[in-house]
């Protein structure tokens, strides 16, 4: 299908530029850009023309941290690849990088194959995989090399969740050494899970069982300590490091110090840490369970450090850590014991809008919005410039965004397969209008026009952020 589309008159925003330009999309790629109202723009013709006057034209979002159908705490994240990628498209995200899981006692390949089977033919938008490494041994280390070669170039390890995903310092060091050698990027869940489990046990013994306690035992200092340790282990291994879901001021400080020393360490935060706080975890009638995730929500004071980190480039990426569990039947597993509440929040549909609101609130510039949500995640995980920007040759993953439309975020209107919204009732200005995935309209004037199976697996090169 060689349909050509021209998008005319919008303000094209990338990580580096803002220009009024017309865009020609052809055969799934961006074929040309030309300044609007010039002869060069008039020469761009196509079967279909979309008028974007008064709108932004931005690259499709790249969400580098999702968990569709993730097994956790005896249940599964409630979005499938079908429902979760459809919701992502609604929210202006056109690529996800999801986490395939290695189970203890099993191989990386086996886990990766299982995730391919869940995703293939079901996705509305393009997808790629990181690999969660939960069992470092000689075989695993060899498999890491093979995965890097075939486009799974990043590996998540956990300093938290002893007995489940946890790796000890020796296992972490060995995986980091391997990554230093094969070009892979280690992504770290940095919380001292051994110490946290002691505090969990002590809290439960005192009869403290409410969701609020989840935030108290998973202390900011234990995130900072683990972040520091991960940085030093990576330094010893000579490997770059990407710390996921950073939430604490003290952890940002560790990253900032290491970066000031010239170390290749990077940090990601998520909308929940920028917009929500321990106040939500303390909501009565067990409603706080809706906000249980790890790292946990922090007192509101931490938000300023996260925004500052995003502006100063001590934090580079905003992704969602989308890992939804319904309140009814799933979060409720932890009534009477906060440690049994499945960890994770929904958000894949909300990220682009919340960050646009952050632009209006003065936290980020428009270009930094696109940089943290599209371009840098694509570069960090080897997808650039195919994904994450609008330039000739790039995939035609393009969003027409109405910066003036007002909306109220609600579970009544969202498309994620979860029975609540973490941002219920929040008013934001800005809304996705039309979304192209490789030139195909998957959302058209606020109607879903995509289909399961349009999205394809996208192998990745190694991290391009180091060069
Ligand atoms: O609470 C969270 N973040 N759940 C998803 C798993 C993880 O640690 O990223
Ligand atoms: Zn994590
Ligand atoms: Zn996660
Ligand atoms: Zn299709």
From TrEMBL:
Its cofactor is Zn(2+). Its EC number is 3.5.2.2. It comes from the Bacteria. SUPFAM superfamilies: Composite domain of metallo-dependent hydrolases, Metallo-dependent hydrolases. The keyword Hydrolase applies. Residues 56-440 form the Amidohydrolase-related domain. CDD domains: D-HYD (cd01314). GO terms for molecular function: dihydropyrimidinase activity. Gene3D superfamilies: Metal-dependent hydrolases, Urease, subunit C, domain 1. The keyword GTP-binding does not apply. Pfam families: Amidohydro_1 (PF01979). Keywords: Hydrolase, Metal-binding. Belongs to the metallo-dependent hydrolases superfamily. Hydantoinase/dihydropyrimidinase family. This is Dihydropyrimidinase. It comes from Streptomyces althioticus subsp. attaecolombicae.
